[in-house]
């Protein structure tokens, strides 16, 4: 009786495990590798992950969200249509990538360094200029603080020995 019971239990257990495995093998769909569609400046060898990673960096360096450069999807405006070029800012960003690459290749990479200088070369990034804003240097510089008394122009000692006006 006990033996039979155990046999039943084993079969039941076996079935449960087999069932779980089958369910699992149906559930684990290989995620499709995402394809890049409309790439004009990133190297042709760039993977989706690499482009995606660069995008996260743009977001931080410019202090914006993805939709600052990407247009909304036509059918679902709450989602971005990443390959679309409908947002004109995307093309400005392409030029910015070209500009940054050129500065690095033409000027930064060729800086002569002594053999003893082992510090890493700091390449130019979006953040070198942007520092967390989409339009760097867009605001006029704040007016300089007034000079301390007696040090501004026309405030030095006058020929008659008096100071100021
Ligand atoms: C500063 C502008 C800018 C921001 C912000 C930005 N992107 Fe992009 N994104 C671009 C540009 C420019 C390209 C096209 C690059 C090229 O042509 O080589 C691009 C391309 C892409 C692509 C490839 C689309 C394709 O053609 O297959 C994906 C995916 C993408 N971005 C995702 C994102 C995500 C996600 C974010 C937010 C985390 C983001 N982007 C933020 C400018 C931006
Ligand atoms: C050498 C400095 C410099 C670098 C490096 C740089 N930018 Fe810019 N960027 C600027 C300046 C300055 C402006 C503002 C131009 C203006 O007033 O319209 C600008 C404007 C932009 C704009 C347009 C903003 C708008 O709303 O009109 C985008 C997008 C942009 N940059 C993206 C990038 C990205 C992405 C990178 C890195 C790949 C980058 N920039 C690297 C200086 C730089």
Structural class: mainly alpha
Structure ligands: heme C
Determine the mean pLDDT.
83
Count of strand segments: 2
Order the strands across the largest sheet as they lie in space: 1-2
Ends apart, CA distance between termini: 116 Å
Taking pLDDT < 50 over at least 5 consecutive residues as the criterion, the unreliable ranges are none
Count of runs of 4 or more consecutive helical residues: 4
Q: From the alpha-carbon coordinates, what is the Rg to the nearest angstrom? A: 32 Å
Quick recap of the structure?
With 165 residues, the protein is an all-alpha fold. 41% of the residues lie in helices and 2% in strands.
Strand-helix topology:
Blueprint: H1 2-27, H2 48-62, E1 71-72, E2 80-81, H3 88-108, H4 126-130
The site of one heme C has 24 residues, from helix 2 and helix 3.
Structural summary, described in words:
By secondary structure, the chain is mostly helical. The chain has a domain of 77 residues. It contains four helices and two strands, in the order ααββαα. A two-stranded antiparallel ribbon has the order 1-2. The model has no long low-confidence stretch (mean pLDDT 83). One heme C binds next to α2 and α3.
